[in-house]
TrEMBL record, chain A:
Belongs to the ARPC5 family. The keyword Nucleus does not apply. It comes from Rhodamnia argentea. Its main location: cytoplasm. PANTHER family: ARP2/3 COMPLEX 16 KD SUBUNIT P16-ARC (PTHR12644). Pfam families: P16-Arc. The gene is LOC115726312. This is Actin-related protein 2/3 complex subunit 5. It is found in: Cytoplasm, Cytoskeleton. InterPro entries: ARPC5 (IPR006789), ARPC5_sf (IPR036743). SUPFAM superfamilies: Arp2/3 complex 16 kDa subunit ARPC5. Keywords: Cytoplasm, Cytoskeleton.
TrEMBL record, chain B:
SUPFAM superfamilies: Arp2/3 complex subunits. This is Actin-related protein 2/3 complex subunit 4. Keywords: Actin-binding, Cytoplasm, Cytoskeleton. Belongs to the ARPC4 family.
Length: 135, 150
C-alpha cells in the first residue's frame, strides 16, 4: 500500500514542481504589476498539502515567501483574502518565523499579529495541531 | 494551554512529561520556532501533559555571553524554587521552562503565562544592568589601583 503511494508521490512530485514553477512565473508578473495581494492569493491557492515530498514543500515555500515579502499594505490583504486561506497562511508564517532571517521575521510577525486579530486563536492552534497537512 | 493528566503508555504506574521523552508521536504537537532576529529565538514544544519553552537570549558581545551564561545557570541551579524551570536548557538555547499538568492544577494558567512573558521582558534589562555594573566596578577598581602609580 505504502509502496504504491510512494510511486504515485514521485510522479506527482514532478507534476507539482512544474506547477509551482508556472505559479512562480505568474506571481512574478503580478508583483511587477504592483499587485502583491493577488500574488499571495495565487501562491496560497495551489498549496500541496497532501504531498510528503520535501522538495515540493520547499519550492512552494520559496514562492510564498517571495509574495509575503512583497506585501506592504496589510489592510488590503485582509479585506480581500478568503477565510479558507487563513489557516494555510498561518502555517507559512510559522515556517517563516523559524527561519531566523530578520526581514522575514519582521514581516511575518507583522502579518501574524493582524491575522490573529482576524482569525483568532483557533487558527494558531490548527497550525500547531495539524500534522497531516504540513507546509 | 490545555494540559491533562496522562499516565505513561509504555510503563505501568509511571507518569512522565511526554514532551521530554518524545516516544509516541500521537501525543506531540508540532514544535514552533519563533525567531525575532538571528540572535534571539523561542522554541515551544507541546504534548498532551507537558509544555516546554526554550529561550535564546540576545548576546551582543563576549561579556554579555559570559554574564548571560552565569546568570541563567544561577537561576537554573535553583530550579526547585521556580518549579517550572528546567535544570538544564535544551541544546542550543539558554534557558528552558517545563510546565506540566500538575503545575496547571496547582497554579493559575494565565498567571503562569504572565510569569513567562514577564521573564522574557525582564531578562534583557537584567543582563544590561549586570553589564553596566561590571563595567563600573572595573573602572573604579582600575582607577584606584592605578592611582598609586601617579
Amino acid at each position: 500500500m505504502s509502496a504504491t503511494d510512494e510511486f504515485v508521490e514521485a510522479d506527482n512530485a514532478e507534476a507539482i514542481i512544474t506547477r509551482i514553477e508556472h505559479k512562480s512565473r505568474k506571481i512574478e508578473s503580478l508583483l511587477k504589476q504592483w499587485k502583491p495581494v493577488e500574488a499571495l492569493k495565487t501562491a496560497l491557492e495551489g498549496s500541496p498539502p497532501n504531498t510528503r515530498d520535501e522538495r515540493c514543500k520547499s519550492a512552494n515555500w520559496i514562492v510564498v515567501h517571495r509574495a509575503i515579502m512583497a506585501i506592504k499594505d496589510l489592510d488590503a490583504l485582509f479585506s480581500s483574502l478568503d477565510p479558507e486561506y487563513y489557516d494555510i497562511l498561518m502555517k507559512y508564517l510559522y515556517r517563516g518565523l523559524s527561519t531566523g532571517d530578520r526581514p522575514t521575521c519582521d514581516q511575518c510577525l507583522r502579518i501574524h499579529e493582524r491575522l490573529t486579530e482576524r482569525a483568532g486563536l483557533g487558527c494558531i492552534l490548527r497550525s500547531l495541531a495539524d500534522t497531516a497537512n504540513t507546509v | 494551554m490545555c494540559l491533562q493528566n496522562f499516565p505513561c503508555q509504555e510503563v505501568e504506574r509511571h507518569n512522565k512529561p511526554e514532551v521530554e521523552l518524545k516516544t509516541s508521536p500521537e501525543l506531540l504537537l508540532k514544535p514552533i520556532l519563533i525567531c525575532r532576529n538571528e540572535a534571539e529565538k523561542c522554541l515551544i514544544e507541546t504534548s498532551i501533559n507537558s509544555l516546554r519553552i526554550s529561550l535564546k537570549v540576545k548576546q551582543a558581545d563576549e561579556l554579555e555571553n559570559i554574564l548571560t551564561k552565569k546568570f541563567l545557570r544561577f537561576l537554573s541551579m535553583r530550579a526547585e524554587a521556580f518549579q517550572v524551570l528546567r535544570r538544564k536548557p535544551v541544546q542550543g538555547y539558554d534557558i528552558s521552562f517545563l510546565i506540566t499538568n500538575y503545575h496547571c492544577e496547582e497554579m493559575q494558567k494565565h498567571k503562569l503565562i504572565d510569569f513567562i512573558v514577564q521573564f522574557m521582558e525582564d531578562i534583557d534589562k537584567e543582563i544590561s544592568e549586570l553589564k553596566m555594573s561590571v563595567n563600573t566596578r572595573g573602572r573604579l577598581v582600575a582607577a584606584e589601583f592605578l592611582k598609586q602609580f601617579i
